[in-house]
Specification:
heterotrimer; A mainly alpha (336); B mainly alpha (432); C alpha/beta (236); B: 432 residues; mainly alpha; ABC transporter involved in vitamin B12 uptake, BtuC; 2 domains; globular; C: 236 residues; alpha/beta; Rossmann fold; 37% helix; 24% strand
Chain lengths: 336, 432, 236
């Protein structure tokens, strides 16, 4: 029984949140990895574009709520996602036409692209703050829990409880659907295959009659969808604050590099590893240990390896370990 | 420097003078002093980017570490805190370092395989628990000592100017560690690694209260120039105020500001002189050769990674120096105020706008961009007022737009960066 | 006399700097094999790239089936019925063999199953490895994928840039056999080769280039018999 209680506590406070967080990271890291393999640069505007996309969704959510349209018990934001996606795809394509396309034409060095993405990041950040300010905005509505701690305890008769928040369940399910759809697209459709071909061998793709501009456009469209979903799910789960999205940049990059830059499957695996590591190292293991250890040996402290404030340090350590021992990532990078 | 450069600097000086004449001399000096500091940071980033093509996205971290040096060097020690847990904290740090070294040793000694991985892991876990058993209680004891005003170990109580080179040294040490890990790999890895380390440095500053007082800030740090409040009492300042027809307060702050300006200009001047020498030396030529064609430089037997590491450390040291100068000018360390957009990416805008690969360009960029950063906000407010002038005063939208005016400057900086990169990628004063 | 099926006529040009090709002419008849040989740096690959439109000509013209295609981009030439197998980077390494072939046929909108069957008949080993990533195959098999990919557009002319570079002699013979087989189906072959002797043996027409200009031009057999060619280029 004690083992079960330990497992339930662990799930409630760490596994489920980590799974949700990992799913959000995975959608973000997938975008980074796609851009890296097609446009061949590290997209530093990713976090801030995610924030702007979420801002668009929040705007549409408020309008829908104002009009009394909802899909309770699901959050209204899900209904607003398509608006956000359209807005962000248009925004990203505009950025591509106005900024990146020129550097593609002159075949600029990757670092120049990164620099340009910094400029886009600034602008995006400014626009987001113009609309949303710097404070926190909550936009989750509908039911809060799929089941809560008390339901779970009553149902199982265990001492410890497990809650599944609506936002977490939606995140995990959505991420799963999106990932399956993405892999289907990349492996089964003509457009998806042409993206992989372009990523594999740009010159030969050209020779084969694949239009690079089309591939780039498709990439931005997919990235836009992934971005808005990732941002919205993260916002539903944890509330919207522009700066938090910027800070997601590090774990997303770490996930993409850990999995092997340019490798979508790697990005997903990397994201869950990063999420589990962040939560695991900053988790207070006291209650779990209390259930597992024999009577009288319960730990007195929190049994927390690092304070929560250092979750970036965990991500960074993962990054350092990867760079030191396997710079190509778990799955060899640079393949799509 | 070319004639164009002289003209641009002269225009910049005129603009600052105009701010002094039409707004206030205090403001002009505040802008000037921060510009001087920004110019040093830009010089550092320009070394990395302009000389070597290295992309450092962690400027904020290096400046913050420099700022920490000021606290550790110049603040008076807190004897009670030292008595409460000083030795424990130091021992804890030593133990932490020792366990990492032990892990490295195990890694180097043991043959490759599962055993090695487990052994390294084991050493780290044991080391971690020993370290935290010593470190945790000691830091808690320190933070419990008079938490309202102290709660940290304090510094060494040495003259504050000494903290500047120490700040550079701190930043150099951090840069060395980051560079060691990420240089020699794909070029964007350095960018991502520096992004990470700067977040961590800020986290350490914010949450290691025993060292930096964390978000409680360290205030009242000794200053290299007499504070305006103390200057007001000086007879010569009072007579100066009389002569100029200003009030004493204003005169005192202008004098103090001028003092900083002189000090900073001295440092910046020396650094420019050194950078110019370096740029024109065989070493500088070699760095540019490596930047322009890494493959052939490698083929010629240059250890590119080692050279990159050296210049990365050097450039980061300049950022640390500037960070230390900034904290000693403000007289306070406020870890909560470090923000990447302001301390990392704005510096990048300076370098790109000014002219990457040109020391004078970077300096000019520091001046122009800092000036814009300060002045765009009122301009943005004015613009928003213009835009919203047709709206009813009670309109929510109007209130919202007016309150968001300050974010206009992020937008402006981004647009400036993009336009420069696209249409004048060599900057205002291009590389020769 | 009517033009050959493909002719790069009196081509002069280079990659922007000094000219590499000087008044160089390369031609191939329908269903025949033409081989370009010559010492290192003679401009063999450059001549082929010029025919394919990968460098700008200062003078001269390229005509395919009587049509002037000098101004067309390489991609447009693919649509006109030219297939090109680069020397390196000629496959999509992370994609399966079958996907490589599919990508080869990217510009086609009709059913490609029949063409793919033909390629598999030509290179049976590829049929066995159709689900495997092309990058994991051996050197000879990768070349087969590369040739197969180029055949997927059903070209009228196939250009091969050193197809046997880096493969073993046995695999080389095998590849040459396949190339002859391809030519028998009516596809013209233009090929640059380092292994001059073996290549000339299967060539209907041989071009010996030196410093970007034609030095000897004749049938493969005649060149092999020519004592000058033997002495200078075939090692006696």
């Amino acid at each position: 029984m004690d083992f079960l209680n330990a497992l339930v506590t662990l799930s409630n406070f760490m596994l489920v949140p980590a799974l949700a967080y990992g799913s959000q990271l995975a959608l973000g890291a997938l975008g980074i990895t796609l851009i890296y393999s097609i446009l061949r640069f590290a997209h530093f505007a990713h976090g801030d574009t995610m924030a702007l996309g979420t801002a668009a969704v929040i705007g549409a959510t408020f309008l829908l709520q104002g009009a009394g349209i909802g899909i309770a018990p699901l959050p209204t934001a899900l209904l607003a996602v398509p608006f956000g996606v359209v807005a962000m795809v248009l925004y990203l394509l505009a950025a591509d036409r106005l900024v990146y396309r020129y550097y593609r034409r002159v075949r600029a060095k990757p670092m120049i692209f990164v620099m340009a993405s910094l400029g886009v990041m600034f602008v995006t950040n400014g626009i987001t703050r113009l609309f949303m300010g710097v404070g926190e905005t909550r936009f989750e509505d509908g039911a809060r829990f799929v089941f809560n701690v008390r339901d779970f305890r009553d149902f199982t008769g265990l001492a410890e409880g497990l809650a599944l928040r609506n936002a977490q369940a939606i995140t995990i399910v959505t991420a799963l659907i999106v990932m399956v759809a993405l892999f289907w697209f990349l492996n089964r459709t003509r457009a998806g295959k042409s993206m992989r071909a372009y990523s594999d061998n740009e010159d030969l793709a050209l020779l084969s009659g694949i239009n690079p501009e089309r591939v780039v456009t498709i990439t931005w469209v997919i990235t836009g969808i992934l971005l808005v979903l990732a941002g919205t799910l993260y916002g539903l789960d944890k509330g919207f604050r522009a700066f938090n999205y910027f800070q997601l940049l590090l774990p997303m990059f770490a996930a993409a590099i850990l999995g092997g830059l340019g490798n979508p499957l790697g990005a997903i695996v990397g994201a869950y590893v990063v999420a589990l590591a962040e939560m695991g190292v900053t988790f207070a293991w006291r209650r779990v240990a209390g259930h597992l250890l024999p009577e009288g040996l319960e730990p007195s402290g929190m049994v927390q390896l690092l304070p929560v404030d250092y979750k970036f340090a965990v991500t960074f350590m993962i990054l350092v370990i990867v760079l030191l021992f396997r710079p190509t990532g778990i799955f060899k990078g640079k393949v799509l | 420097m070319t004639a164009r450069g002289y003209v641009l600097f002269a225009v910049m000086a005129l603009v600052l003078a105009a701010v002094g004449a039409f707004q206030s001399w205090q403001l002009a000096l505040t802008i000037l002093n921060m510009s001087l500091i920004s110019a040093i940071m830009a010089l550092g980033v320009n070394m990395q980017w302009g000389f070597a093509g290295l992309f450092n996205v962690g400027v904020m971290g290096f400046t913050a570490v420099g700022g920490l040096a000021v606290v550790l060097v110049a603040q008076p020690p807190v004897p009670d805190a030292w008595a409460a847990g000083g030795p424990g904290a130091l021992l804890g740090l030593l133990l932490g370092v020792a366990s990492i070294l032990a892990a490295v040793l195990v890694y180097k000694r043991l043959p490759k395989g599962r055993l090695r991985g487990l052994a390294v892991f084991g050493v780290l876990v044991v080391g971690y628990f020993i370290t935290s058993a010593v470190f945790g209680p000691a830091t808690q004891a320190i933070e419990a000592v008079n938490p309202a005003s102290e709660g940290y170990l304090g510094g060494l109580g040495l003259p504050v100017v000494l903290a500047w080179p120490v700040g550079a040294l701190f930043a150099a040490a951090v840069a060395w560690a980051v560079g060691k890990v990420s240089l020699g790999l794909r070029s964007d890895y350095l960018a991502i690694a520096t992004l990470g380390i700067s977040e961590i440095v800020i986290a350490v500053l914010k949450f290691e209260g025993w060292m930096s007082r964390g978000v409680n800030n360290v205030t009242g740090i000794d200053r290299p120039v007499t504070r305006p409040v103390d200057l007001q009492a000086a007879p010569w300042v009072q007579s100066l105020a009389d002569t100029l027809g200003w009030d004493v307060q204003q005169a005192a702050s202008v004098v103090s500001g001028l003092g900083y300006a002189g000090l900073f200009a001295l440092v910046l001047g020396a650094l420019i002189w050194l950078s110019e020498r370096a740029w024109n030396s065989p070493w500088g030529r070699m760095m540019r050769a490596i930047r322009d064609n890494e493959v052939s430089a490698r083929a010629m037997g240059k250890d590119v990674t080692q050279r990159h590491l050296a210049i990365f450390v050097l450039g980061s040291a300049l950022c640390g120096l500037a960070g230390a100068m900034m904290v000693s000018m403000d007289g306070q360390l406020t870890p909560g105020s470090y923000e990447p957009l302001r301390f990392t990416f704005l510096i990048w805008v300076m370098v790109i706008v000014g002219g990457s690969g040109n020391n004078w360009g970077a300096v000019l960029g520091g001046f122009i961009v800092w000036f814009l950063w300060v002045q765009v906000e009122p301009a943005g407010r004015w613009f928003m007022e213009l835009v919203t002038s047709g709206m009813a005063d009670t309109s929510d939208l109007k209130a919202h737009l007016l309150s968001s005016a300050s974010y206009m400057r992020l937008l402006t900086m981004g647009v400036a960066l993009l336009l420069m990169l696209r249409f004048a990628p060599r900057g205002l004063i291009p590389e020769r | 006399m009517a033009d050959p099926f493909l002719i790069g006529d009196a081509m002069t040009g280079g990659y922007g700097g000094a000219d590499i090709l000087h008044d160089c002419t390369i031609a191939v008849e329908k269903g025949q094999i033409a081989v370009i040989v010559g010492p290192n740096g003679a401009g063999k690959s450059t001549a082929m790239k010029a025919v394919f439109g990968m460098l700008k000509l200062r003078a001269g013209a390229v005509r395919l089936d009587g049509r002037d295609i000098t101004q067309l981009t390489p991609q447009a030439r693919v649509r006109e019925g030219m297939g090109f197998v680069p020397q390196t980077g000629n496959i999509f390494p992370s994609m399966t063999v079958e996907e490589n072939l599919e990508m080869g046929a990217f510009i086609r909108r009709d059913d490609i199953a029949a063409t793919m069957e033909q390629v598999y008949d030509l290179f049976p080993i590829l049929r066995d490895k159709r689900g495997q990533a092309a990058g994991e195959l051996s050197g000879g098999q990768r070349q087969q994928v590369a040739v197969g990919r180029a055949l997927m557009t059903q070209p009228k002319l196939l250009m091969l840039d050193e197809p046997t570079a880096g493969v073993s002699p046995i695999v080389m013979d095998e590849l040459f056999d396949r190339i002859i087989e391809i030519a028998r189906t009516g596809i013209s072959i233009l090929m640059v080769e380092q292994n001059a002797r073996q290549a000339l043996e299967i060539a209907d027409k041989g071009y010996v280039l030196v410093q970007g200009a034609n030095r000897f031009t004749d049938t493969g057999q005649a060149l092999l018999a020519d004592p000058d060619v033997r002495k200078s280029f075939l090692g006696g």
